[in-house]
Amino acid sequence: MNYNLIGSGNTAWFFAKKLSGAGHTCLGVYSRNQATAMELASQINSTVYGGLSEIKDGADVCIIAISDHAIANIASQLSFKETVLLHTAGSVDMSALGEVAAHKGVIWPIYSILKQKLPEHRNIPTVFEASSEKAKNTINNICQTFTNILNEATAEQRRWLHLSAVLSNNFTNHLMTVAESVCKAHGIPFSMLIPILQQTFERVQSASPYDVQTGPARRHDDITIRKHMDMLQTHSDWQTIYQAITSSIENMYK
Fold it and tell me: What domains are defined for the chain?
């Protein structure tokens, strides 16, 4: 299979390395950042397009792996009859690709991707949407290069899944960043928290998160909660987060 790639960020690197590593050929990379496009192209023995007009119909697939808000604008500058056009955003409808391609779809790996540390394993749940059987077959071929877990999902399901991923992954990471800042400010090694964090994620592999909730909010321990709120007085944002999550837990376990 041969493909064109639009984008040079983390997700673009992921797809490029996985596809090229499986023997598929990248015809060219386009990005508004020529330097990063050249860096990526050199890694997969490809070339860099100077403009979108250079991306012609005829490749098996064209993958748009860019910022969510830019997808519709970039897609509107393309025109394909044979090439399958895909984007890789979790919260963007397939309709953002417009009517510029006869065959189109969406691939979204539910995984936090950093080009500096691309995953080597295949435990990467992925959902897709396709407008035609040809697009579906192309998506299957792509996904075979990096995952054993592939499911079809509607646009609405994907939006809710994306929200759930933000809540469970991005928000959790931010809370750990806040905890790390608290530890640093008081001369405590953040590494002291790693075992309890690992325990939390191990538990939810075999039980519902609802059933394994612990802590002062779960116990309705108002004395401890007030102490924590007082300790966060100099960080109003963190205090607001603490109060909001505490209230949510208390309401859930009334």
Answer: 2-153 (3.40.50.720), 158-252 (1.10.1040.20)
